[in-house]
Amino acid sequence: MSAAVSLEIERKYDVDPDTPLPDWAALPGVDAVDAPEARALDARYLDTPDARLAGALTALRRRTGGPDEGWHVKRSTPEGKLETHWPLGEDPTDPDADPVVPDAVLAELAAVAPGPFAVIARIRNARTAYALRDAAGGLVAEFVDDHVTATDRRRDVETTWREWELELGPAAPQDAAARAALFAAADALVAAAGGRVSASASKLGRALGV
């Protein structure tokens, strides 16, 4: 299995079920907003019994649906989330069964947590994605409107919520000050619509109540 590595720089927002979408065409640098794309996502998150991945600010998941379905290892860094991604390939996992971690993923995590791994949460997400583009058609950011159903497998507790994410794309500003200005403008648009910067750093954290 070949892996791809990327850095996610994003902002998360808490919103109510009926909060209207912001006018993203008003975001500086955005010339057009693509038509919405619906995605049905189903992810299982895994960790060791003593939560070694959580202690290392690392998350492991297997997700189906969307353009990047597969196995993901996410590590929190000061710049953003460093993600290593492996495609599902010929993964024979039953959709309703707990997944078996591939050898390539185990090798990636060996120094942090040698296993064994078990599912700690399942997160299903009815996502609507919008590409925000500049005048040349470059992707400034992707905005997603997420309707989440999460199950904490440790406590057998299910929670539902709605949230937004804005993730910077290749055409976004490259320097820190310009990125901060872009996010500040996004925060203002979200606040005008009735949203607020999220109190939770991740869906997994919210699912587990941490």
From TrEMBL:
Biological source species: Microbacterium telephonicum
Domain CYTH: 6-207
Entries under InterPro entries matching the protein: CYTH-like_dom_sf, CYTH_domain
Superkingdom of source: Bacteria
Biased composition (Basic and acidic residues): 65-84
Coiled coil: none
Region spans: Disordered: 64-94
Name under which the protein is recorded: CYTH domain-containing protein
A Pfam cross-reference name: CYTH
